[in-house]
């Protein structure tokens, strides 16, 4: 029978990894906001379907090389891209409201 201390230790490690994942997701979203701002400030279209496809292809390839399920990773990143799109639209709306209030 397995020592319960090992099990608890592994659960704690999983919890720490989950927290790291959350911090990385937050960082990714913060960086994306900087990209949106730069693009808007420089009148570059903020939506880039080619970039989304590139991201999905990159993570699928990395998942494959790491022995992970491509489908799982693709689904996870598709959800991340959907969230990013929601945030992009909110950011655009906020910037437009800010610009209107300056006039």
Mean pLDDT: 92
CATH homologous superfamily classification: Chorismate mutase
CATH topology title: Chorismate Mutase Domain, subunit A
Uncertain spans, ≥5 residues at pLDDT below 50? Answer: none
What is the helix/strand order? Answer: HHH
Radius of gyration: 19 Å
Largest sheet properties: none
Number of domain modules: 1
Top CATH class? Mainly Alpha
Number of helices, counting only DSSP H or I runs of 4 residues or more: 3
Overall number of strands = 0
> What is the CATH architecture annotation?
Up-down Bundle
Describe what this molecule looks like in 3D:
- This protein is mainly α and 103 residues long.
- It has one domain (4-102): Chorismate mutase (Chorismate Mutase Domain, subunit A).
- The chain has helices at residues 4-41, 49-65, 70-102.
- Helix 1 crosses helix 3 and helix 2 runs antiparallel to helix 3.
- The chain is elongated and about 70 Å long.
- The termini are far apart.
- The mean pLDDT is 92.
